[in-house]
Amino acid sequence: MARFDLYKNPSTRSRITSPFLLDVQSDHLGDLISRVVIPLTRVVGNYTPSKVAQDLSPIIYIAGEPFVLETPLLGAFRTSELGRAIGTLKDERDRISAALERLFGAY
Questions:
Q1: Does the pLDDT of residue 88 top 80, yes or no?
Q2: Per the structure, how many domains does the chain have?
Q3: What CATH number does the domain containing 84 carry?
């Protein structure tokens, strides 16, 4: 498991709207039994991103489909629940890191 790896959401309750989870935990903490993740929520209908929170919840494209990185909804899952990574969002590292910095007060 690595930071910025992408996983299918194992939660049957939320996977319809948020089919993916993004691992944002430091690779230096790989021996823990859980990983900190952020859900990626489908953009539906006439969604207009908030001008105030674009850096907090940026739009990220996965296979051409837009998703909102729901940074304020971050949480943790056991590594055994996440399964295998299905991809990576390393190319979005700067935007993801900026969202985390915004959430935790680095501004």
A1: yes
A2: 1
A3: 2.30.30.110
